[in-house]
């Protein structure tokens, strides 16, 4: 497996949140109420963006958090500090989630460190804008699917033996799955696969008392887009096309991940929540 430092893409992805201006808003907005007390959660892509906000909110609600990320070590340590400041344990693990063996090793470390796994948040992803389908290389196509959907299979396979009744899996799909995206053909295709995976995995696991749901964010201000995940033209008016006329913040998305992970959503499985700025989709 290659060193994670070598996997930084030429376009700057995944991108440092520490270098982003203005800074995304990750801070939980409300005091915790113990909704995840005693739980252990794996959150992928938790070094920045939505993943950081989810890790922070889960910690505030009482969960210990394993932070899976690619190579942004400073951002990951910042997230770990946030989790610890909430009085919870944090574990950072760097590596390529598109590598099946890494996923199994990483999950084994979490079990060794924390003794259990109750929640898996499949949030990590990558995107590369291309205005013409002929510009999408085979390497990019394979890499996008490897990161965005293969990794969800690999991680779910790795955690499945450790999930007991009452466990929850929350996947991150996207509004592009429902609307399409002319600049993100490969990315939006993976998000369609994630939604189908969510619904099918729910049917597969619901009889064992394990709930599987998803969140489909709209345009959210994270390092993903300004670090190369969107064209300069799109960035200039990022989020303005939503009914609310602005991009969302990570801490506006994290509560959806909390709701689906905790007992408040005990009668929900196979569903998708849509924090997208008011865009109406058939979901």
Automatic annotation (TrEMBL):
Listed PROSITE patterns: ADH_SHORT (PS00061)
Catalytic activity: 2,5-dichlorocyclohexa-2,5-dien-1,4-diol + NAD(+) = 2,5-dichlorohydroquinone + NADH + H(+)
Sequence segments annotated as region (Disordered): 1-31, 223-250
Molecular function GO labels: oxidoreductase activity, acting on CH-OH group of donors
SUPFAM superfamilies attached to this UniProt entry: NAD(P)-binding Rossmann-fold domains
Sequence ranges of Basic and acidic residues compositional bias: 1-28
Alphabetical keyword list: Oxidoreductase
InterPro entries reported in the protein's UniProt record: NAD(P)-bd_dom_sf (IPR036291), Sc_DH/Rdtase_CS (IPR020904), SDR_fam (IPR002347)
CDD domains per record: SDR_c1
A Pfam entry, by short name: adh_short_C2
Family according to the record: Belongs to the short-chain dehydrogenases/reductases (SDR) family.
Protein name: SDR-family protein
Source organism: Sphingobium indicum (strain DSM 16413 / CCM 7287 / MTCC 6362 / UT26 / NBRC 101211 / UT26S) (Sphingobium japonicum)
